[in-house]
């Protein structure tokens, strides 16, 4: 069982307990356990199998350790099963309404005895919600506006969709003379793999001008809400966007607040409290006096911290690093010098060898590896040894025609379901660069998956594991890998790890890329391009590396090919 699955069980427990208005300390304990589990790189299952004590982790005491063991051993959590029987599914569905959390749902369920979205809607229409203590007309209106979309509200879009839309709107807003500063905040600014919605902040001499532009923007399908300084729209992509126009003196504070994550903000607020200060989206205050808030740097400075890059704001390791003065200087797109995973017309790519090389060179790269598929991937016209050797011959010829640029003979070789390599060793031995990957049989039991990975890692010709888990963001779970064991083996055998930059993969993820780095494994960020435009995704891979806290020196393809070669095991 994967850490994320275990963590989801404890989040659900916390939600259901909170709906039942259980002891807040218990709720908090489950939430914190869930966060610890999902942000731990080592597999809880493996740790348990190795007889390790889980109470070594922050927020996990004896009782929680026992519950985690129960979940891993039985795939179930007894109390959760009981809770699921007590709280109707329709009540749980209410959590999907934007702006509605377990606390509000608890009131709907316990006080108004509402058990479904339909009943909640009827109650809102009858004005029953506004009459509740702590609620008002505004909350009720918000629920009415959002309830029909609750089914979709849980849907998140890929960072590529989110970022592209956000950047277009930000750029257009910046064209307005009435608008001074604009930026996206929220999960998009933190470069999370997926975004629930977009949060855009601006300062403007005339907020109406900004809102007018957004209302008429070509990406916008409809205006959901429009106030004096705040507006929510729905894009054609179904993604929703909030625009908030804030005063100059609050812009930094609003950026800090709305960039999140919530977990990060909780810590910042507590640090402020400890200093006798108050931080909110309007500024940093000592009593009634505002002492910071125009800039984000100022907000962090007020609580004694250096500015923290948004990609790190997940309350994982950023506060410790900041306190120690060791915040990393994160890798940037411009640091990348080579791309070592791409396809040509020889398998399922759209560009020729020369076209790919020239496109890469035009983007400022100095080397690439052509890594078409091996024969198992027949759907993608994968290469057998005869075709591969002929293809490599073509690559060597193309190499001569492009000056000041290295084109390497590579292969993306499948690791077959029976734990053998798709191509014989004597062929792999001739390659400049061998990526080993799992494509088929991703559902196999962990034992077989690990056997396959070990075949690749211990093969003397394999240089790297490509998109290690095989997951598709939001669509398909990856293979059940014991990450800790795999990474240790890779470190021992001099095998590198890929961050596949395609926004549907982003594999390794941030947590495991950080774990690989901790073991000294060189990380390679690759685009897996299938056309000359495929190189565009590099930024998403770099973002994932930044979320992992990686610097230029942690990422091998920031080196020249000459320097890179020194890292190869052969
Ligand atoms: P998303 O949209 O689900 O991908 O994730 P975010 O992080 O963009 O979350 P969102 O859009 O709900 O809110 C944007 C930021 O605003 C969030 O990261 C932190 C801040 N924020 C929102 N609600 C709260 C809250 O109740 N408490 C605190 N401390 N911060 C909040
Ligand atoms: Ca958001
Ligand atoms: Ca939002």
The helical percent reads 40-55%
Q: Which structural class matches the secondary elements?
A: alpha/beta
Question: How many strands appear in the DSSP assignment?
Answer: 17
Radius of gyration: 26 Å
User: Multimeric state of these chains?
Assistant: single chain
What overall form do the CA principal axes indicate? globular
Q: Give me the side-by-side strand order of the main sheet.
A: 11-12-13-14-15-16-17
**Sheet of most strands:** 7 strands, parallel
Tally of contiguous helical segments: 25
List low-confidence stretches. none
Tell me, rounded to a whole number, the average pLDDT: 94
Percent of residues in β-strands? 5-15%
Q: Whole-Å distance between the termini?
A: 36 Å
**Hetero groups bound?**
2'-deoxyguanosine-5'-triphosphate, calcium ion
